Amino acid sequence: MNAERATAALVLAAGASRRFGSADKLLALVQGRPMAEASFRLTDRPGIAQRLAVVSTSQVADLARAQGMEVLAVPEGGPQSDSLLLGLRHLRQARPARLLVLLGDMPFLRGDDIDRLLAFAGDDAACAQSAGQPMPPALFPATWFDRLETLQGDRGAGSLLRDIPKANRLDLPPAVLRDIDRPDDLTP
């Protein structure tokens, strides 16, 4: 596969988990496995040439490496945009055609959801949506990378997701798009 036409995958797994309590939510068990492992596994797909996890703890880093991912570390507690920017700047060196962004705390996504998003997007930006609300996972073509690099603070790419045309938002069930913020979020 031509590296310039490839898709790179970035899993953001460096959150502080403040609302989850003292435990690292990314290591909480979901269906018998650590939560973040589900997102790491989703990046092992045909067409994804480079897989990177941005993490803030050594335990999550070990989990990502065990899934065959490259790992970059950021200090815990920094703004959400720091993880995205660090990952994007690292991945841009390989000149991918597009970037798939996933969150480490969305353990209910399935491989076929990612496959559908990759096929649905074509050469355009695309994301998932639930009830009209744009959400990760999201796919950004290289033409959006400069815009991604302007993000600041704790909002991540949310503001850019709203710029993705409604026709480029893939409807997925709310249960699949649940992110986990509190221990109660683990119960259906």
From TrEMBL:
The keyword Magnesium applies. One of its GO terms (molecular function) is nucleotidyltransferase activity. It comes from the Bacteria. Coiled coil: none annotated. Residues 9-163 form the MobA-like NTP transferase domain. Gene3D superfamilies: Spore Coat Polysaccharide Biosynthesis Protein SpsA, Chain A (3.90.550.10). InterPro entries: MobA-like_NTP_Trfase, Nucleotide-diphossugar_trans. Signal peptide: none annotated. CDD domains: GT_2_like_f (cd04182). Keywords: Magnesium, Transferase. It holds the Pfam family NTP_transf_3. This is NTP transferase domain-containing protein.
